[in-house]
Amino acid sequence: MPWIRELNDVEQSPLLDVRGLTTRFPSDRGMVHAVEDVSFCIRPGEAVGLVGESGSGKSTVLRSLLGLINPPGRIVSGAVMFRGRDLRTLGEHDLRRVRGGQIGLILQDPVNAFNPSLTIGDQLRRILRLHRPGLPAGGYDREISRMLARVGVDTAGGSKLNQYAFNYSQGQLQRVMIAAACLGGEPSLVLADEPTTSLDVTIEAQVLQLLRDLRGELGLALLLVTHNLALVAELCDRVLVMYAGRLVEDSDVYSMFESPKHPYTRQLLRSLPRFPASGARLESMPGSVPDLTALPPGCSFAPRCEQYLGAICDTVCPSLLATRTTDQRAACHLYA
Amino acid sequence: MRPLVRVERLSQHFPLRGMPFARQRMVYAVDAVDLAIERGAAVGLIGESGSGKTTFGRTLLQLYPPTGGRIYVDGQDVTGAHGQALRALRRRMQMVFQNPYSAVNRRKTVAEIITEPLTIHNIGNRTSRLARGRELLDMVGLPSIFMARYPHEVSGGQLQRVGIARALALEPDFIVADEPTASLDVSIRAQVINLLAELRVRLGLTLLFISHDLSVVSYVCERVAVMYLGKIVEEGLNTEVEQHPLHPYTRALLGAIPRPDPRQRRLLSAPLGEIPSAVDRPAGCHYHPRCPLAMPVCRVTYPQLELKAPGHRVACHAVPAAVDDTL
Question: Is A63 within the bounds of a domain?
Answer without folding.
Answer: yes
